[in-house]
Amino acid sequence: MDLDHFQPRKLAYGEDVRSDYRLLECSEELLDTILREGTVIKGGENDEAVLCTRMKTYALKYVETTNMQLLVSPDIGGFENAGNDDIENSPYSMVNAPGLQTQIQKLSRCCQKTKAVTVTATNQSHLEAVEIAPRLGALEALLLKRPYGLADEQLGEVEEDTMADPCSSAVTGTEGLHTFRDLLERVQASEEELRAGLRSLGAIELNGSWRTVDPQYLGSLLELIISSCQQLGHSFIRVPATEVCESLRECGVNPAIAMHCLEAYGSPAGDDISSSNPADTRCCAAGSASKFWALNESKVCKYFAGKLLTCGRQMSTVEFMNKLKDAVPDGMQPSLESLKGEVLMTGKSQNTQVKAFPLSALPREPAKRFAALFAERPKWNADDMEPYISDLKVPGLTTGALLLKYARVSQTSPQDPIIYSMR
């Protein structure tokens, strides 16, 4: 508005004053992003609306104000012929300090020389944008409805060339499948957060649709890869991707799924890491162009540990470790330390039992995650809890802050370990 010191303006209501506008309070950084890149508001009938930019997600908090806010039309001018006399005679001037009636008279004369500021809308509330973690629960629910498995291989549903146009509709049997654009519309997350969520779920793009792979089927492929390496004489720390994928193709396995298995249980090997492109977020994992891959010993051991402890089965620690050493490939050395986040030990001293408790089966939202942890075990020490909360990411909150928010801290004596229990 064109307002100057000592120069009052008239305020007038327009003919059609609206009250349906919503103001948004945001940081300068967010405002700059909105003006430069645009934004979108997402949410279904039963969801709280969120605002998403390309990189971040924001909750929209409804804030009421006690005072009415007046929205005015764009200013088109102030004083027409204002001079020093106007300033000196302004009711706000301290010159001569006039009385109340004199101020009113001067204000009336001063305002006659100005154009009125027109009120076009009123408002008594606004929306505040607060950065939050993406809400990926819907993403997991959508993808788990139709995971890729053995039936898909047998039906030949997915062609070998799996990197088709994401907008293509030339996929047979697309019921329950979702393109990236579809997921972006339905999941309350930014574009980059959605890509990160797909990677964390181990999803893969097949003929334009994003799918998770059935864990049991993925595990069976891992065993095929291990068997192939043993037959071909390859080291587990330098697996030739092309040769192994071709070997699995002869068994009826889609090469893209075989490659996905290498990405899930391994990483680019040695000098070949430089040939990968970590910035390429179109792939499930960076480095899929690498020629050689190294199987991750911890991930492989976790797979075989989960296989031994299926259906809620428990074993003594000694029996479990003996069977696990027999199950894993030769050359790999499993340890309880490397199995954190996959198994839990219960009991004390000689009666210690091992049971499956995989991180992948726990909720992703912090409140639900902590509730699930304390439902499993009323009290946790820091070492046991750390692998189950280290992946939680909440803007503005560290892991320590999350523990203070969702757990009660106790310590019997300074020498004893810190214990966390339900708040």
Automatic annotation (TrEMBL):
<comment type="similarity">
    <text>Belongs to the DCC1 family.</text>
</comment>
<dbReference type="GO" id="GO:0000775">
    <property type="term" value="C:chromosome, centromeric region"/>
</dbReference>
<dbReference type="GO" id="GO:0006260">
    <property type="term" value="P:DNA replication"/>
</dbReference>
<dbReference type="GO" id="GO:0034088">
    <property type="term" value="P:maintenance of mitotic sister chromatid cohesion"/>
</dbReference>
<dbReference type="GO" id="GO:0000785">
    <property type="term" value="C:chromatin"/>
</dbReference>
<protein>
    <recommendedName>
        <fullName>Sister chromatid cohesion protein DCC1</fullName>
    </recommendedName>
</protein>
<dbReference type="InterPro" id="IPR019128">
    <property type="entry name" value="Dcc1"/>
</dbReference>
<dbReference type="Pfam" id="PF09724">
    <property type="entry name" value="Dcc1"/>
</dbReference>
<keyword id="KW-0235">DNA replication</keyword>
<dbReference type="GO" id="GO:0031390">
    <property type="term" value="C:Ctf18 RFC-like complex"/>
</dbReference>
